[in-house]
Amino acid sequence: MSETSPKLRAELEGIPTYKPGRPAAAGGAVAYKLSSNENPYPPLPGVMEAATAAASSFNRYPDLACTDLMNELSDRFGVPLEHLATGTGSVGVTQQLVQATSGPGDEVIYAWRSFEAYPIIAQISGAKSVQVPLTAGAVHDLDAMADAITDRTRLIIVCNPNNPTGTAVRRAELERFLDRVPSDVVVALDEAYYEFIRDPEVPNGIELYRDRPNVCVLRTFSKAYGLAGLRVGFAVAHEPVAAALRKTAVPFGVSRIAQDAAIASLRAEDELFGRVGTLVCERNRVVEGLRAQGWTLPDTQANFVWLPLGERAAAFAQACETAGVMVRPFPGEGVRVTIGETEANDVVLKVADAFLKES
Ligand SMILES: Cc1ncc(COP(=O)(O)O)c(C=O)c1O
């Protein structure tokens, strides 16, 4: 038997592994997970019932085309069915989009630091990541991103609001940027946290896409709608982009449980958005509390805050963990803290106050 190892694609070498937010410690002190930008609320009763009912038929494959969900999305967002595609979370849809647009020799532009799945997905497809640093204020530098376009650019991702900094780009600057992008380069507006935006100047990508055939809006049921564990997201884009996303989807990737829960969630938006409103109030309370303590942090439009702690990021995360709260450190850069239950946010404020006084 020869000892040569199986041939795998060279592109896979050195791919950073996706680091999920660490779970809350089991047992012991009260522990909260503020490390994955999840919704802290349990499923709404109606959504739970829809998911449970769908579970009774999981011996069957789900509807490949997600017909009922697509119809619901089409009505809810006022977009034609042909302009929709679904996937296993918006990470799944992002992967479909990169596969549909970019291969070896192509370039994918996105801001950095931004969502950590982007470099992984780009590298798997063999495309080159072109990372454009955020501004000093931790905001997308759209001028620099436009300057980075070459004739090899196939896709530009704008994460709005940006994970992990929470900062958002506004309508005028985004439109100016879109005007500079060649019409054959796809621009993905990753709006995973759209529902948490309160700045009226931050645009709804679904309005921007309508007269821009190269714009693709990515949305998810994982955050505001609270279905992170069910894996369902969607894209809104003109054809042929949406059609390409349907082609590159994993067949039957979105389970029937996820499809039915997503439909029930859309029908329960009043209650869900009430919860989002509560989280936004908590966010404001946390931001104001931190600033009153003397912290400097960027404005956030998402369900998390960013503490640009630099070298002290790991120490702060450790202090939070000791106090029973898991947060998400980016060593050497900062810490992202999800807005969660009031009690969890209180612990963060307490730790932050002590941390600042000690340092
Ligand atoms: C910016 C951004 N996009 C997309 C996602 C993916 O969410 P999901 O795949 O659960 O829909 C996340 C999740 O953390 C995110 O932060």
From TrEMBL:
It is an enzyme of class 2 (transferase). Aminotransferase that catalyzes the conversion of aromatic amino acids and 2-oxoglutarate into corresponding aromatic oxo acids and L-glutamate. Belongs to the class-II pyridoxal-phosphate-dependent aminotransferase family. It comes from the Bacteria. InterPro entries: Aminotrans_II_pyridoxalP_BS, Aminotransferase_I/II_large, ArAT, HisP_aminotrans, HistidinolP_aminotransfase, PyrdxlP-dep_Trfase, PyrdxlP-dep_Trfase_major, PyrdxlP-dep_Trfase_small. Homodimer. It holds the Pfam family Aminotran_1_2. GO terms for biological process: L-histidine biosynthetic process. It comes from Streptomyces cadmiisoli. Residues 33-348 form the Aminotransferase class I/classII large domain. This is Aromatic amino acid aminotransferase. Keywords: Aminotransferase, Pyridoxal phosphate, Transferase. Its cofactor is pyridoxal 5'-phosphate. The modification N6-(pyridoxal phosphate)lysine is found at residue 223. PANTHER family: HISTIDINOL-PHOSPHATE AMINOTRANSFERASE, HISTIDINOL-PHOSPHATE AMINOTRANSFERASE 2. It catalyses: an aromatic L-alpha-amino acid + 2-oxoglutarate = an aromatic oxo-acid + L-glutamate. Its EC number is 2.6.1.57. One of its GO terms (molecular function) is histidinol-phosphate transaminase activity.
